[in-house]
Amino acid sequence: MDAQHDQNVSQRIASADVDARVWDVIVVGGGPAGLAAAIAAYDQGAKDVLILEREKELGGILNQCVHNGFGLRRFHEELTGPEYAGRYIDELATRAITVALEATVLEVAPQGDDEVAVRVVSPTLGYKEPRGKSVVLSTGCRERTRGAIGTPGDRPSGVFTAGAAQKYVNREGERVGDRVVILGSGDIGLIMARRLTLEGAKVLAVVELMPYSNGLTRNIVQCLQDFDIPLYLSHTISRIVGKRRLEKVVISQVDDKRAPIPGTEREIECDALLLSVGLIPENEVARTAGVELDRRTKGPIVTQTRETTIPRVFSCGNALHVHDLVDFVSEEAEGAGRAAAKRALGQTQSAENYVAVEPGALVNYVVPQRIDLAALDEKTPFFLRVANVFQNKKLVVRRGDDVIKEIKRLRVAPAEMERVELDRETLRADQNGKITISLED
Ligand SMILES: Cc1cc2nc3c(=O)[nH]c(=O)nc-3n(C[C@H](O)[C@H](O)[C@H](O)COP(=O)(O)OP(=O)(O)OC[C@H]3O[C@@H](n4cnc5c(N)ncnc54)[C@H](O)[C@@H]3O)c2cc1C
Fold first, then answer.
1. Ligand 1 mean position, distance from CA 57 (Å)
2. Which residues contact 395 (CB under 8 A, 6 or more apart)?
3. Which of 30, 315, 321, 432 is the most exposed place for a label (fewest CB within 10 A)?
4. With contact defined as beta carbons under 8 Å apart, do 367 and 335 qualify?
């Protein structure tokens, strides 16, 4: 963000009377999802839009992603994370959208049928309770930690989540270690393998529990293969060793139940271990509103407009489900922002009848989980992740028992989000029976 943007945004920083009026739309979280939602809401006609962001700056996780690869779909350019966020912050600065930084939202509480209160604390505003006609939750996601995966061994320093290590290196100029092992081959682990190599560390191994990588193919090539970093598939870290600082890890091959196979252990001396073992949508705030969460995505259950099970409360971005590309986050958030604005302006009503959408065979989850037939656009995109790597299959969409769409796929993988579109006529044609999407031969 340059000085001009700082100035433009700061002119509209929320003041102490933030709770003196009812906002059209309040957006919780100023990452790429929140920025896109706020801009779209404003452009849809909601002129009182407030963004509440707990950090000192807008942009979310993108601020620490200094690598390029962002925005290929949206801008047909390879941008870094801060550059991608900067495009939206530029856009924001041309609209009268109010921003409160260092403003942490604690709770969201529906107030009757027409308003939602947002409880927020900030060093400048104190405790405030602004109310919105609609609220968009775009709180991003958090990383799974060592506690979540229960790796046995000592508890030395030198064990980081990959995102925390990325922040230390990219934002604070710190070194996390000289001889590094990374557990998990999702995109963050792959990006960090390359980043630490470029910073002068030796990345000795990327260890992956599954028989396939969970990262995008382009990242495996550009981050591992181009730097000769070995990837150990079907392996895990079975012990962490070190008194004060990490001294070594023991890696083991795993069987088809993902349990370490005795006799396959091998020691790697290292002083840093990065854990890139999954992201979980951040929904503490959503829970306070009573929003129903999907046990598969760990994000809210939503309609195609991204309205949750609580009327006037919307969700988008990584808080809703973990996306691989920020371009999809922006697209989804724009839809949520527009829908939140329409609701605030009284142009739409909460749905009364829904069609359920569920994952079928070999599909892990589908978003949205409900369709509001009264609010259909010409096309409705569904996003899903498959359960494993497969070749030569087809995605089959059923309404009840009837097949309504089939799409051939040469290769599918859990790391690459799939998109299926259904048009309005197809969705309206037969209003009985739930929709399922499955992967079949
Ligand atoms: C290491 C890494 C590498 C990546 N590489 C790529 C890539 O190469 N290409 C690509 O397209 N995508 C990439 N991504 C994905 C992309 O960064 C994310 O999809 C995107 O940032 C998600 O946007 P979001 O707004 O949903 O979440 P976030 O960016 O996480 O933003 C959420 C915001 O909400 C705020 N917040 C949370 N809770 C509260 C609260 N209670 N009160 C107020 N504010 C709150 C947070 O402070 C944060 O600013 C990468 C992600 C990571 C982590």
1. 13
2. 384, 405, 406, 407, 409, 412, 418, 420, 437, 438, 439
3. 432
4. no
Bridge partners (DSSP) listed for residue 367: 383
pLDDT in tens, 301-350: 999 999 999 999 999 999 999 998 899 999 999 999 999 999 999 999 87
Say yes or no: CB of residue 69 within 6 Å of ligand 1.
Answer: yes
**DSSP code for 261:** P
Dump pLDDT digits (tens) for 87-110.
999 999 999 999 999 999 999 999
Alpha-helical (H) ranges within 281-392 are 284-288, 326-344
DSSP letter for 89, please: H
Three-state SS annotation for 151-194: CCECCCECEEEHHHHHHHHHHHCCCCCCEEEEECCCHHHHHHHH
**Distance in angstroms (rounded) separating the CA atoms of residues 306 and 136:** 9
Check if 68 has its Cβ closer than 6 Å to any atom of ligand 1.
no
pTM over 0.90? The answer is yes
Counting ligand 1 atoms within 8 A of each CB, the residue from 18, 61, 313 with the most, and so the one to mutate, is 61
61 in ligand 1 pocket by Cβ < 6 Å? yes
Q: Dihedral of CA 191/196/200/204: which sign?
A: negative
Query: From start to end of 53-125, where are the E strands?
Result: 68-70, 79-80, 98-100, 104-111, 115-122
Q: What are phi and psi of 357, to 5 degrees?
A: -120, 130
For 181, the token pair is 């092992």
Could you tell me the two tokens for 185?
């081959």
Residue 413 token pair: 């993988």
Q: Which of 182, 136, 160, 170 is nearest to 44 (CA)?
A: 136
3 state SS of 139: coil
- CA–CA distance, 252 with 236 (Å, rounded to integer): 6
- Any bridge partners for residue 241, and if so which? 248
Report the distance separating Cα 192 and Cα 23, nearest Å: 40
